[in-house]
Amino acid sequence: MLARPDAYRCTECGLPYRSEGFSYYEGKIENGAAYWSDRGILCSPRCSIAHHRKRQAEGTLRQEPAPDPFEF
Fold this sequence. Notes:
With 72 residues, this protein is of the alpha+beta class. The protein is 19% helix and 8% strand.
């Protein structure tokens, strides 16, 4: 059987969801990504900080939290 392609990747580094090293909420994959923004999910605290700094430099920081991309 072929593995299905992952639709989700880290917005900063491109690491696919379900890859080793990806951070999940409460450490459980079924809870979704631990970090995300309005532009997508983030794999780690390092990418979260990098994304925040990039958005800050661009002047595109949101004023309210982004909705959880795994809650439909």
